Amino acid sequence: MRLVRQILDYEPWNDQEAMDRSMILDALKSQANIFRRENKQAHMTASAWVANPERSKVLMVYHNIYDSWSWMGGHADGEEDLLAVAVREVQEESGLQHVRTVTDAIFSLEALTVDGHWKDGEYVSSHLHLNLTYLLEANENDPLSVKADENSGVAWFDLDEAVRASSEPWIREHVYRKLNEKLRSFSADL
Question: Does domain 2-189 bear CATH number 3.90.79.10?
Fold first, then answer.
């Protein structure tokens, strides 16, 4: 499986990524339906950290379920090309028509806890999102639109402002700060 090779080749940024990479690889090898929500314990998801070309701002949505400014992403729903999932989710959630892949490589990975919640009138039990994040790019002057069934706002934020905008402490401190560190490092290498 190509995805397993990409994850094996991925160099973890920190201890969180090293431990989560191991968990994701184990799940890919042992869990049935890992690419589908029917796996109630854990399933694969893809997210995107969308930057402007100058890498000075990132695009976020106000996520209705999490009641927080958030990156964009979603469930694999059977798709094993998680980069394609990330691009599709950004287009759906932000209304952007032109989204570019900065690199085909995994930008970050995380095992994320999802608290139980109501969606479309049905209860969804707590579970894990085994998430791969990709770095995408878009023009901050392109038109944006909300996806009312998922978010109630779409906006560009300066990097540090994006972290502060999140009301999810763990995500803010351990994911968004990391993504910004990586973005700054990635930009410095160009």
Answer: yes
Angle CA 94–95–101, to nearest 5: 75
Contact call for residues 106 and 134 (beta carbons, < 8 A): yes
Amino acid of residue 74 = G
Check if the beta carbon of residue 69 is closer than 8 Å to that of residue 162: yes
Q: Are 87 and 72 in contact (CB under 8 A)?
A: no
Burial readout 102-134 (b: 16 or more C-beta within 10 A, e: otherwise): beeebbbbbbbebeeeeeeeeeeeebbbbbbbb
Distance (Å, rounded) from C-alpha 131 to C-alpha 7? 11
Q: How far apart are CA 53 and CA 182, in angstroms?
A: 15
Cα distances (angstroms) measured from residue 59 to each of 28, 49, 90, 127, 164: 30, 7, 9, 26, 14
Q: What is the pLDDT of residues 69-90, one digit of tens each?
A: 999 999 999 999 999 999 999 9
Domain spans in the chain, listed from the N-terminal domain onward: 2-189
pLDDT of residue 190: 53
Q: Which amino acid would we find at residue 116?
A: G
Question: How far does the chain reach from its first CA to its final CA, in angstroms?
Answer: 30
Question: How many CB atoms are closer than 10 A to CB 60?
Answer: 26
